[in-house]
């Protein structure tokens, strides 16, 4: 090899090296760029949604700029601010904090729940936390003058976590939103929160596997998600409940000690203890249980009580049994002690006395397997001695609140179509009688003044007024303290004529109902919307509705009639019990007699233009009416939402088996199939003639969607004009605002078509 060849070889190798180095450099550059992109992605993924002030407008600001007045609609209804959970300043009661949920204006594309403060002397209102769409604050506790602990999905992970909000010395001059401090950063949502009076302990819940920690549950879910398993395996009921599948994780309460650090920020001083570890059960119970009603700390904060069902076996599906357990938090090992296990009916909602660690009250039923049994108050003193308070009172107690001196109870309950509040003093005296404080509309969530047991705040609404926070000072002094929706209400026109009426119904007993005049008045003949409530052990109440609302129909020119037939609650337990085994008789007769009564009583109603609408049991009754021509032909059209069509099949497919078994008289469908066929709409399809609109949600596991699909199939097969609205993302009720608008549009389209 000569020198020239050697030079060429060296040059060739150098060129190869240069190429290799170039590719390595380019590779490193690409890796670096990818790293930066990933880092930016992670940063923005973890960063909470930014607030765009130009994208925020309250309904008050939006409606203030409108010039005309228009008939109230479901769109207006959904734009209303929703207020809840009012709480007094813990020391002086001069201020109140509450939750306010707002919707994106004007298109409803998103919602936000924030904390609000109001001064009761000046009515000055301050929005404490920043409204960010799809961010929701909840479950707050006013610990002391300047500190609030609450849950929110403001976390960088977008999961719901524990936050602390520090208030300035003078909140009234605050001109900007306060930024909360994130306390926890768990890989799972915190779903519920309860803080003791001393601010030394709190309880929260996470959905965990019974025998796994929070982190272990998150790790398992990550692995399962990566495996993309699409098969569910069950060995017991529930398979699904309300609108979700029960796939393993349970609501478990975790109890932990807390204290402030040197910067005044609360932190955990112990490891949170899973009170239900290794127990396959929920507390709070699904799907409507919450910590505010189902958990309680004792006066000293050293004891904890909670409610749970016995989810460990399938009997939970055909049992109403739930029990109350107490835990001594000072013990080295936390052990749950059942204080109600001798009762196999429902016991729930413990409330410790604010002055005595040994005393608590709770709500209790006595008939196993009967969800609508009367709920009474039990008093327990720690030595397993129990007393039934107001044992002869024919009322079901919905909620209990102690006075701060531990001598009285404030009771919330349904009474003749209204949600009222009573005060019950000298609770252990046999001669003591509750005094009704509020008798109109619907009142909830009473919070007692910290220095005056005669004063409380609460939420209140009615058929003519959406929810506001009210201050009660005496029988003659009750006033709203919030005005968020006033500008909206000033720009809409609603019916102001709302009245109750009575008539002699089935069994020659008095039956009540609501009559709402159309906005257009009574000078001309008006069509009638004949509404049938669900339950059936429920009532049409003097309350504001965001899904079902009488005013929506009245604003469309319809008179509204809503009858509380036999089986309705709030009219005494005997009236409620009467529907058992009479699913298709007593209520049907009440509706039949009631319709004739209102057509005679209200001459402006056009008896030839009547439409019947009902949901759930109301949908069942529409299907039942459809098969009985003596009633069905009185209606131009029918509308059934989430209605029962085949009771026997329903008994095998509903999530809560006990509901159907009790309704027919306490039978199973295999022991007594005739009990399910006696009032079964499917047996009368041959008599169906009237046009019907069916609507149903895919995730309705209370009344499965096949009930609605089957009814629609029957209508189509019979050649009857019919239409079906199927909502693939909804459950038993229509909860999505845009779906609600569609539902009302289709309902009025159907009604107007057939009454024309």
UniProtKB/TrEMBL annotation:
Which positions, given as ranges, span the membrane?
A: 20-44
Q: Which InterPro entries match?
A: 6-blade_b-propeller_TolB-like, AB_hydrolase_fold, Peptidase_S9_cat
Q: Name one GO molecular function term.
A: serine-type endopeptidase activity
- Keywords of this protein's UniProt record, alphabetized? Hydrolase, Membrane, Protease, Signal, Transmembrane, Transmembrane helix
Note whether Signal occurs among the keywords.
Answer: yes
Q: Which GO terms describe its biological process?
A: proteolysis
Q: Where is the Peptidase S9 prolyl oligopeptidase catalytic domain?
A: 544-755
What family is this protein classified in?
Answer: Belongs to the peptidase S9C family.
Q: What is this protein called?
A: Peptidase S9 prolyl oligopeptidase catalytic domain-containing protein
């Amino acid at each position: 090899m000569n020198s020239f060849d050697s030079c060429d070889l060296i040059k060739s190798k150098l060129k190869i090296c240069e190429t290799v180095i170039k590719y390595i450099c380019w590779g490193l550059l690409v890796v670096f760029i990818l790293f930066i992109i990933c880092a930016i992605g992670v940063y923005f993924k973890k960063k909470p949604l930014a607030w765009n002030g130009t994208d925020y407008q309250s309904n008050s600001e939006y409606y203030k700029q409108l010039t005309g007045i228009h008939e109230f609609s479901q769109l207006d209804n959904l734009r209303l601010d929703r207020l809840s959970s009012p709480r007094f300043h813990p020391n002086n009661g001069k201020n109140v904090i509450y939750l306010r949920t707002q919707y994106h204006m004007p298109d409803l594309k998103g919602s936000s729940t924030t904390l609000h403060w109001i001064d009761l002397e000046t009515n000055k209102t301050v929005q404490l936390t920043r409204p960010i769409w799809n961010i929701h604050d909840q479950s707050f506790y006013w610990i002391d003058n300047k500190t609030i602990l609450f849950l929110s999905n403001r976390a960088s992970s977008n999961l719901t976590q524990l936050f602390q909000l520090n208030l300035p010395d003078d909140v009234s001059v605050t001109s900007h939103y306060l930024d909360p401090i994130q306390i926890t950063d768990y890989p799972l949502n915190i779903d519920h929160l309860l803080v003791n009076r001393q601010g030394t302990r709190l309880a929260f819940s996470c959905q965990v596997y019974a025998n796994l920690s929070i982190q272990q549950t998150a790790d398992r879910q990550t692995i399962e998600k990566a495996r993309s398993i699409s098969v569910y395996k069950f060995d017991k009921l529930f398979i699904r409940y309300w609108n979700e599948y029960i796939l393993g994780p349970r609501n478990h309460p975790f109890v932990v000690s807390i204290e402030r650090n040197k910067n005044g920020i609360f932190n955990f001083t112990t490891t949170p203890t899973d009170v239900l570890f290794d127990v396959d059960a929920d507390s709070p119970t699904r799907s409507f249980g919450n910590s505010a009603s189902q958990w309680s700390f004792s006066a000293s904060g050293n004891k904890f009580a909670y409610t749970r069902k016995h989810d460990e076996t399938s009997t939970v599906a055909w049992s109403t049994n739930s029990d109350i357990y107490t835990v001594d938090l000072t013990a080295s090992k936390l052990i749950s002690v059942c204080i109600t296990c001798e009762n196999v009916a429902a016991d729930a909602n413990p409330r410790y006395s604010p002055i005595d660690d040994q005393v608590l009250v709770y709500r209790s039923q006595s008939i196993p397997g009967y969800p609508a049994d009367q709920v009474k108050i039990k008093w327990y003193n720690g030595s397993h001695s129990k007393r039934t308070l107001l044992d002869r009172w024919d009322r079901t107690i919905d909620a209990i609140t102690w006075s701060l001196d531990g001598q009285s109870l404030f009771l919330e309950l349904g009474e003749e179509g209204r949600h009222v509040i009573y005060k019950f003093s000298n609770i252990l005296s046999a001669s003591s009688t509750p005094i009704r404080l509020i008798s109109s509309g619907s009142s909830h969530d009473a919070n007692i003044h910290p220095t005056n047991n005669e004063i409380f705040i609460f939420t209140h609404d009615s058929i003519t007024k959406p929810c506001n926070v009210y201050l009660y000072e005496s029988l003659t002094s009750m006033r709203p303290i919030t005005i968020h929706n006033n500008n909206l209400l000033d720009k809409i026109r609603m019916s102001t004529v709302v009245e109750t009426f009575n008539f002699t119904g089935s069994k020659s007993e008095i039956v009540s109902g609501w009559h709402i005049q159309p906005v257009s008045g009574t000078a001309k003949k008006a069509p009638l919307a004949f509404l049938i409530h669900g339950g059936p052990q429920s009532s049409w109440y003097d309350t504001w509705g965001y899904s079902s609302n009488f005013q929506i129909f009245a604003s469309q020119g319809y008179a509204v009639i809503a009858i509380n037939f036999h089986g309705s609650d709030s009219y005494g337990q005997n009236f409620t019990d009467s529907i058992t085994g009479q699913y298709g008789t007593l209520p049907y007769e009440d509706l039949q007699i009631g319709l004739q009564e209102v057509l005679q009583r209200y001459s402006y109603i056009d008896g030839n233009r009547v439409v019947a609408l009902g949901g759930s049991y109301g949908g069942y009754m529409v299907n039942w009416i459809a098969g009985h021509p003596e009633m069905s032909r009185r209606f131009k059209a029918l509308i059934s939402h989430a209605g029962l069509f085949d009771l026997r099949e329903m008994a095998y497919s509903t999530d809560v088996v006990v509901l159907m078994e009790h309704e027919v008289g306490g039978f199973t469908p295999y022991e007594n199939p005739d009990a399910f066929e006696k009032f079964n709409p499917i047996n009368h399809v041959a008599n169906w003639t009237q046009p019907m609109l069916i609507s149903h949600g895919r995730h309705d596991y209370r009344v499965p969607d096949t009930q609605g699909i089957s009814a629609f199939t029957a209508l189509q097969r019979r050649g009857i004009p019919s239409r079906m609205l199927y909502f693939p993302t909804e459950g038993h009720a229509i909860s999505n605002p845009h779906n609600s608008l569609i539902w009302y549009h289709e309902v009025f389209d159907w009604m107007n078509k057939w009454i024309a």
